[in-house]
Amino acid sequence: MSALCESKTRDETGGQDASDTEESASLTKSEVLPEASKDMESKGSKGTQSRKHKLSPDRERASKIAKQDVDADVSSASTSVPSDLTTSGSNERKSDTSDVKTVTDNTVLVADHYNALEEKGLSQRNKSRIVYMRNFNNWIKSMLINEYIVKVKQGKSYGASLRVLDMCCGKGGDLLKWKKANISHLICADIAQVSLEQCQQRYNDMVNGKASNRGYAPIYTAEFITADCTKVRLREKFKDPSMQLDFVNCQFAFHYSFESLPQAECMLRNASESLRPGGYFIGTIPDAYDLVSRWQKCDGNKFGNDVFSIEFLCEDKTEAPLFGAKYNFHLDGVVDCPEFLVYLPTLRKLALKHGLEMVMFERFDAFYERYKNEGRSLLGNMQALETYPPYHETPLLGDPERDYQHAVQYMQNLPANHRKIGTLSQSEWEVTSLYAVFAFQKMKTIWNSEGKPEYVKS
Ligand SMILES: C[S@@+](CC[C@H](N)C(=O)[O-])C[C@H]1O[C@@H](n2cnc3c(N)ncnc32)[C@H](O)[C@@H]1O
Description:
single chain; alpha/beta; Rossmann fold; seven-stranded mixed beta sheet; 19 strands; disordered N terminus; binds S-adenosylmethionine
């Protein structure tokens, strides 16, 4: 993918924290990103089995098969709403690869991993090998949140309240985005108590004016819930359980719920139950098609580069279960835990069952293409791209020989006086290009004669 837009480099902002610098000034440059993965069409498997992913790259066929599988899975799933799905007895359905014990183990692993992650200061974060990729991901989140906040606001009168649930909020990297969006109330939920405490501290610092205020409206009110969003009914934990929200956010985390059908259902139900009709549920997840395509192409079950690795723990490269299709994801000092494939037709179908209609699913490269002009100055302000060739005092973070060939080629076609461009190293792009953004809209609920909810477009 090639792209022209504007950016600013790290040295131009004095190394500020990108997540806190969305409103600083920007300079103009050209940018280029490495080619997007076009390799999702590999040849492969034959035959299907009930309740398995068809991992053939033939997407349409695969999606038809998965649709039948999902129909069976979803229709046999429970519609009752226990508060805690770990003890849901008859509601519990075993997925192909996970029983109740492994389900528990994995969520504990994930919580322990995030709890143990050190809160790195600004200077440490800026030294990270993947600082530009993290900033780029942050830019994607900002643009996505902005796109749907604008839609939500369109249906509201000026000054009306705007309430948000951030599921799996982490240490609160998005707190400033909510401030910019001028929301009135935020509910933060995460399984990792230490992360949530850091999130609350950051929020308190914002309220007390320690963090940059930069002229925004008074800060929203907030509440913090330590909970496993895949097992606990969040609405019961809200300070006001009758509250209707406009927006649910779940960034880089929804895939943890695809460990089992009950967990995926619980997460979707949490999103759905929180939203008013017309509200939006948005987020970012790895694209299962791309993950599987790369897995099928590698020798063995492990692939990656110097900044990330993924090791699949499923037996068969051509078939994986709809739930519990597990891989270990390691990312340079940031993530090191089990994750699960989220098969798009399954997600779409399951969400619909909970009154959430998918309105957008877009790979990061396509989303970037769509927003690179509108998000030009923010891309620069957030230092989301690395300068190539580098300034003398700022060496490239990637391998100069291997990681910037796309930039070298791109520059060959630029006018001679065009000396610098912004880019991501090949290694970073290989990670971030795995991801996709999604958005669902909450449908209107009507109650049928049996007292069960049915959903219609709002
Ligand atoms: C990659 S971090 C993303 C954090 C934040 N959303 C962001 O974009 O900066 C994933 C987060 O999901 C949380 N998480 C994972 N599984 C969870 C679960 N079952 N329930 C609640 N939070 C969970 C982790 O504790 C971690 O904070």
